[in-house]
Amino acid sequence: MDGAREGAVAVVQRKSGSTNAAAGTPSGFHVAFLVSESTGSLRLLGGNQSNQVRYSDFSLGSWEVKGYRWP
Length: 71
Known about the structure:
Layout: E1 9-14, E2 29-37, E3 41-46, E4 54-59, E5 63-69
Antiparallel strand pairs: 1-2, 1-5, 2-3, 3-4
């Protein structure tokens, strides 16, 4: 994925019809730091997830990467 590198800010959106509830926002968007990626998933470090900062895995079958930002 272009622009993907450890530490980048990743913007992902839940695909329509997905029941994955890792991001509880009504918009289905989630923004977090990229920790690692594999062929089928991303590991992100984000805040405000169950009132904590934690690592979460996002399946690319359920989530679409909207972009990466590097400061």
